Amino acid sequence: MRAAREAVGLTREELAMKLELSGPARIRVWETGLERPRPRFVPRLAAALGVDPLYLLDVDAGDPPLAALRLAVGFATNQVTAPGLSVMTYVRLEDGRPGVDDSARVIAAVAEVLGVDVARVEAAVRRSRRDHAALASPGG
Q1: Per-residue b/e over 50-64, b at no fewer than 16 CB within 10 Å?
Q2: What is the DSSP secondary structure assignment for residue 90, as one 8-state letter?
Q3: pTM of the predicted model, to two decimals?
Q4: Can you give the pLDDT at residue 100?
Q5: 94: Cα within 13 Å, side-chain hemisphere
Q6: pLDDT tens digits for the chain (140 residues)?
Q7: What is the rounded CA–CA span in Å between residue 70 and residue 131?
């Protein structure tokens, strides 16, 4: 994040002003990795720095997990809901848990809420499941 800020010639103070923060301390904390920006700041921060939100999230933009797609649009998990899509179903999908309803209807609802195409959500769900399986396996 620091490199992106410096590349556009902004000081921490200037970036804080663009984001309507009370001061540059939050920027320093984000840049040092002590905290991550809250979801609502991710798209605004990316726009201010002229980068893709996925870049700020340090994920493979070609194969992001579902959580990264959500954060890229600035949503908290409780904001991902629609008719036929409960927050809990979404959270389970994002966590990569097996056995979760991943019907075409659910995937389409997630895609609509996040403003991405269905294929992108399907790939992100597969990535989230791979990540979950890797963590659940011995030594993972």
Answers
A1: ebebbebbebeeeeb
A2: H
A3: 0.89
A4: 85
A5: 22
A6: 999 999 999 999 999 999 999 999 999 999 999 999 999 999 999 999 999 999 999 899 999 999 999 999 999 999 999 998 999 999 999 999 888 888 999 999 999 999 999 999 999 999 999 999 998 877 65
A7: 16
| Neighbour count for residue 15 (Cβ, 10 Å) | 22
Three-class SS of residue 118?
A: helix
Strand partners, 82: 85
β-partners of residue 85 are: 82
Would you state the pLDDT for residue 98?
A: 82
Residue 67, C-beta contacts closer than 8 angstroms, at least 6 positions apart: 94, 128
Residue type, 133: A
3-state SS class at 82: strand
Locate 23 and state its tokens: 């001061």
Q: Which residues contact 60 (CB under 8 A, 6 or more apart)?
A: none
> Quick one: tokens of 28?
């320093």
Angle at alpha carbon of residue 136, lines to 131 and 140, rounded to 5°: 75
